[in-house]
Amino acid sequence: MRNNSNRIYSYIKKMYSLLFSIIFLFVVGCKANGSFIDPIKPEFETISFDVVEKKLLVEEKLPEHILKLISNWFDKKVKINGFDGDMIFKISNYAEEISLIDDGKRVDITLSFNLILSKPLLSKKQFIEGTVSAYGTLKGDFTIKEFETIITNTQTDLVIRLSKDLKSKI
């Protein structure tokens, strides 16, 4: 009889141990489901124009994140230091496409820009235009939040490319 009670006690002990292990793995697993993809923190170079006034025109509705990035970049890093003229910077043709790839997803984003520098005293106008694009991919098992981070990072990369492309054309 004593042998049976030892077996039962041993069996109960193993079951509690197994149950504790399952609960522990579940709790740790739930905490580990956070996003492993860090958002990009953009760093823009300063661009200067020899004009008195600058204006940003966004010709269509943009996602909130990209609109905020472009506005912050334009307000803080696009400088004016002239005595005459104005600058109009237009954003247009924003396109964002999400597609399925082998074992994952891909986001492609493009954006066009047009810059007009007017100097009435010199009767001079300068036009600069361009299109920039960026893409991001995510493969394997991922969460919706991780893919949203990829989209946000791709949008950030697009604005970084926009500022570099504009600076290279000046």
Write structural notes for this entry.
With 170 residues, this protein is an alpha/beta fold. The chain contains 3 helices and 6 strands, in the order αββαββββα. The strands form 2 sheets. It has a 4-stranded mixed beta sheet with strand order 2-4-5-6. A hairpin with a 4-residue loop joins strand 5 (104-119) and strand 6. The chain starts with a helix and ends with a helix.
Descriptors for this entry?
four-stranded mixed β-sheet; 170 residues; 3 helices; alpha/beta; two-stranded parallel ribbon
Give the strand content: 35-45%
Physical arrangement of strands within the biggest beta sheet: 2-4-5-6
Mean pLDDT: 85
The geometry reads as: elongated
Question: What's the order of the H and E elements?
Answer: HEEHEEEEH
- Helical percentage: 40-55%
Query: Ends: how far apart?
Result: 93 Å
Number of strands: 6
Number of H- or I-type helical stretches: 3
Low-confidence stretches: 24-34
- Main beta sheet: 4 strands, mixed
Fold topology:
Blueprint: H1 2-31, E1 47-49, E2 53-58, H2 64-77, E3 78-80, E4 86-101, E5 104-119, E6 124-139, H3 144-169
Parallel strand pairs: 1-3, 2-4
Antiparallel strand pairs: 4-5, 5-6
Helix pairs in contact: 2-3
Summarize the structure.
This protein has 170 residues and is an alpha/beta fold. The chain has three helices and six strands. It starts with a helix and ends with a helix.
